[in-house]
Specification:
Length: 751
């Protein structure tokens, strides 16, 4: 409809109804913008409110201009009300459009570049408007107050040029349809302003339908822009869509710079006033151009400095990277040979960090890495260099090291500082680190950057093999062990598919009579070259490489299937259960409940025949998520055991959050339990009493003597497992062991 009215007005078909058509289009534009803003609710709604208010003022000013017949009247009798209303509308329109430019989201240096380029173009426009409109209008001898108002129109037009170009030059402005429509509306308004100003001054004779046409097109474009779905994107955070110095932008600024000079050369300005004004405009443009060049040089210097920083620093933590560390290490080694000083390098790898990424997501993992980097920086000396070399690995170059023991003390201090819990997004993270230390004295001529890094890496792997959360100092004997570790890590990928894994079972007996109540399934790996590899060697590797889920699923399926076979062959095992260890990756996997359900259903077992064991550290990685999964497992009837209880948190508060049915007391406390004066005895008694108060069963691990067993009975412990009753045995021998333990006597079953 609006388009039809515009076409009709352009063709002079509306006659006296042209003013009505203008009014209809203006009202429709304001209504469309208001409804669209109300329905789409864009961010920074104030910018749209300013623009809507501006168009309301344009509407009122247009009606007042028509009613008061001010067009062409430059005498004292002219009413300035329409002009003041319209000029106020321009100020609001400029304010709204400036909000769309979102210059604050651009770097300050680039923001000023946009302003300077827009100012140069605006000054060129000012020169053209001066010679084509303002100077001829001044010669008309209009009333002073009318002259001032009429001059304000081109001045406002120049200001709108600055605003428009600032939007157009903004590299983060989304080039969406609503953006182009708004710029089109502003362009038509500028054309209309120039025509009205020339008509007011009597400098040109423009038919009324052509005088109103640009305004109608401006209103129509603005209304369509507001209705377009992309209008919300005008006030949303932008992203760069083109280079800051585009070809069009450079060409426009270049043309603008020569416009005043061309006007002077062509003799357009013949009066002294013309020459002064044009000279001042040229001087202002020259100053802006100089500032623009200076700004460009600053941006280039800043970009170069940023590129140099990025080349030598980690993008996530902003720590120096390996390249910068190796450069510093090379200088330190050269200085050490001259000054006979010492150099030490720490290679730090966070333990089980992959579990954080796989269970909680990389965002939390990145946040944790940033916090770890900050803590390392806070706990080193000014002479030390903390670097991140990738993933969860850091290196720290220790300068001014007095001795190896001094470097070892620093390494242990860093290991201890990382054990303090991290608070990330409202969650508590517990971190430990394996640290390798390589040391070179000033007289060690064979030490190089490459060898020192390699030795520190080797020592770090030795620290992991020692059980993690440790510091290992490199020595030559480590190389063979690390090579074996790498070989085992490589072969572990095929262990499941090549049927190299097998299970052994250790009975869990009820106290005091020693009858079997269950058995724990323990995985073993028969390596084709290294023989039987214990879980202490390959389970940590499986956790680091993400293979633990595949191995864990195999163990669960194999243990449940084997237990179902025993139940069919030996009915006396119907009341027993099989216990399977669950890794953190399995617990936080969305499919764990499905895997457990499928395994039980496949073999026709009730949930009470299965117990899943988890360590304290696993459930505390994400207590809320762990509690939710464990509750689902408990609804299946599956028992839940907290393994190695007492070795880490041992908190009643956290224990109450989890639906555990069994606490397995860590064997490190059971070793001295027979000694009534041992603190371990008091701790075991406390754990048993706490479990009884919560209605949770207790199992003591690592029982090896009758004295320990008897003391556990006195303390009220419910069950036990250990070599006193049986070593872990294969599935073919377990029924025999269970039968032997079923005589109501404590017997040592040798294997």
């Amino acid at each position: 409809v609006g388009g039809s009215l515009v076409v009709a007005a352009a063709g002079g078909l509306l006659g006296a109804w042209e003013s009505v058509a203008y009014l209809v289009i203006a009202l429709a534009t304001v209504a469309a913008m208001t409804v669209s803003v109300w329905r789409r609710r864009p961010s920074h709604i104030g910018h749209w409110v300013a623009i809507i208010t501006a168009f309301v003022l344009f509407l009122i000013g247009g009606v007042a201009r028509y009613e008061l017949a001010v067009t062409g009247n430059i005498t004292e009798s002219r009413s300035l009300i329409p002009d003041l209303i319209t000029l106020l509308g321009y100020l609001l329109l400029a304010a709204g459009l400036l909000g769309f430019s979102r210059s604050s989201s651009v770097e300050p240096q680039r923001r000023w570049s946009v302003v300077l380029d827009a100012s140069i173009a605006a000054l060129a426009a000012a020169a053209v408007i001066w010679v084509s409109a303002i100077q001829p209008m001044l010669a008309q001898g209009a009333a002073p107050r009318v002259t001032i108002v009429l001059i304000l129109y081109p001045s406002m037009s120049i200001f709108m040029v600055v605003v428009t170009l600032r939007i157009a030059f903004n590299p983060e402005q989304e080039r969406v349809p609503a953006y182009w429509l708004l710029l089109t509306a502003v362009t038509f308004m500028l054309v209309s302003d120039v025509l009205y100003m020339l008509a007011d001054a009597g400098l040109v004779a423009v038919p009324k339908q052509l005088l109103d046409l640009p305004y109608m097109l401006a209103l129509l474009s603005a209304g369509v822009a507001a209705l377009h779905p992309t209008m919300r994107m005008l006030t949303e955070p932008g992203r760069p869509t083109r280079m800051t110095r585009s070809t069009v932008r450079i060409a426009l600024v270049g043309i603008a710079l020569v416009v005043p000079a061309l006007l002077v050369l062509k003799g357009v300005g013949s009066t002294t006033t013309d020459r002064v004004v044009l000279s001042l405009l040229m001087l202002a443009m020259a100053a802006a151009a100089v500032l623009r060049v200076v700004q460009a040089l600053r941006i280039a210097h800043s970009s170069e400095a940023r590129l140099v920083f990025q080349a030598h620093h980690d993008s996530l933590t902003e720590l120096p990277n390996r390249r910068l560390m190796e450069r510093h290490l090379s200088r330190l080694l050269d200085r050490a040979r001259v000054d006979e000083t010492h150099v030490a390098l720490l290679y730090i790898d966070l333990d089980r960090f992959k579990l954080v990424n796989d269970t909680l997501g990389h965002r939390h993992g990145d946040e944790l890495l940033v916090e770890v980097a900050g803590r390392l920086r806070e706990n080193v000396r000014p002479s030390d260099l903390v670097t991140r070399i990738g993933g969860d690995e850091f290196m720290i170059l220790l300068g001014d090291v007095v001795s190896l023991s001094h470097a070892l003390d620093l390494a242990n201090r860093l290991r201890s500082c990382l054990k303090v819990p991290f608070d990330i997004s409202g969650m508590t993270f517990y971190v430990s680190a394996s640290i390798g230390l390589a040391y070179a004295s000033g007289d060690d001529t064979a030490a190089t950057v490459e060898t020192l890094v390699r030795d520190a890496d080797t020592a770090m792997y030795q620290a992991k093999d020692a059980g993690r959360d440790a510091v290992a100092v490199f020595d030559e004997t480590m190389r063979v062990r690390v090579e074996q570790r790498v070989e085992i890590e490589r072969d572990l990928h095929d262990a499941v598919s090549l049927n190299q894994l097998h299970l052994v079972y250790q009975p869990i007996v009820r106290l005091p009579h020693g009858m079997t109540m269950g058995m724990e399934a323990l995985v073993r790996w028969t390596h084709p070259e290294h023989g039987v590899v214990g879980p202490a060697r390959f389970i940590p590797l499986a956790e680091e490489d993400g293979l633990i889920s595949e191995i864990g699923e195999w163990v669960l399926s194999e243990a449940v299937g084997q237990f179902a076979t025993w139940r069919r062959q030996w009915p006396e095992m119907a009341n027993l259960y099989v216990s399977v260890n669950l890794s953190g990756l399995q617990l936080y996997d969305d499919t764990i409940v499905t895997h457990v359900t499928d395994a039980l259903t496949l073999h026709g077992l009730p949930g009470s025949c299965l117990c899943l064991e988890l360590t304290e550290s696993v459930v505390m990685d994400d207590p809320d998520a762990a509690a939710a999964v464990l509750r689902e497992l408990r609804r299946l009837g599956v028992q839940v055991a907290i393994d190695d209880f007492g070795s880490e948190y041992s908190s009643l508060a956290y224990l109450k959050r989890f639906p555990a049915t069994i606490l397995k007391i860590d064997q490190s406390f059971v070793g001295n339990v027979a000694n009534p004066d041992s603190p371990d005895t008091t701790l075991v008694a406390t754990i048993v009493a706490m479990a009884q108060g919560l209605g949770i069963g207790t199992v003591a691990e690592g029982v090896e003597s009758s004295a320990q067993s008897e003391r556990l009975v006195e303390l009220g412990c419910d069950a036990a497992q250990g070599y006193l009753y049986s070593r872990p045995v294969g599935p073919d021998r377990l029924p025999e062991v269970v039968t032997s333990l079923g005589t109501h006597k404590l017997q040592l079953v040798k294997s």
